[in-house]
Amino acid sequence: MSVNNTITYEFPLNERIRVFIRLEQLFQQFGHFSAGATVADKRAAISALLDIMSIFRRNDLKSEVLKELDRNTKVLGKMAHNEGIDADKLENILAEAAFISKNLYAVTGKIGMNVMESDLFQSITQRSSIPGGTCSFDLPEYHHWLEQDAAYCRKDLELWSNPFNDIRTAIALVLNLIRHSNSPTEEVAAAGFFQFTPDRNQTFQLLKVSLDKSLPCFAEISGGKHRCTIRFMVPPEDDKRPTQSPDDIPFQLTCCLF
């Protein structure tokens, strides 16, 4: 199964990884739109940054990321002398993890909260809770900012996002290690249904389901550490609800560790 011809669905098995993946997506959106030059790009970048801020306000992410980095470092350290391990690559990963951990430990207080010191950002945050609440007549200062040169706005966006750079790098490292921690197995969902019980002796954090893009269905994953169910659903026609595929669906299943 060629990677370019597949679509992969991920299912986190704990809240920590669920939050990490949400942040990863928001960081990607912010990076994409902050590079744009239109007013719509700038608005989308600010919207992504507001969502990032909201997640950081509700979670002690510094502590969660440091725990995950520390655990991964210990696991990787035990693998150093295993046969077939690329020692140089492993050493680089461990060095990167140590560098990121050092930077995060040096941060005092909640990450990114100093962003709120900007009066403009505070105003945008307050009005964004209202649907369509950031129009020019609501926030003329924001309207003025949006109409500035792209380079000027990008400088502000970089300033506001800089506090999150280390934790963004840390989350990317953790998720990359998890996603590549195990090899996929070839499976078949009989009549679009597949159920299995993960090995209780392993600490799985994420499921990946990959299938060929040409198959006219999508994967709906549910369950937890004790039992997982995968249903392959056919997109609806008109306004009807999706239905489970009647066909046997071949797919790849990866139970990711770390």
Give an account of the 3D structure:
This protein is of the alpha+beta class and 258 residues long. It has 2 domains: 15-178, YacF-like (Orthogonal Bundle), CATH 1.10.3900.10; 182-256, YacF-like domains (YacF-like), CATH 2.60.440. Helices cover 47% and strands 18% of the residues. The chain contains 8 helices and 8 strands. The chain has a 4-stranded antiparallel sheet. A hairpin with an 8-residue loop joins strand 6 and strand 7 (243-244). The longest helix is centred in the first third of the chain and has 20 residues, at 15-34. It is globular and about 60 Å long. The two termini are 25 Å apart. The model has no long low-confidence stretch (mean pLDDT 91). It comes from Methylovulum psychrotolerans. Cell division factor that enhances FtsZ-ring assembly. Directly interacts with FtsZ and promotes bundling of FtsZ protofilaments, with a reduction in FtsZ GTPase activity. It is found in: Cytoplasm. This is Cell division protein ZapD. One of its GO terms (biological process) is FtsZ-dependent cytokinesis.
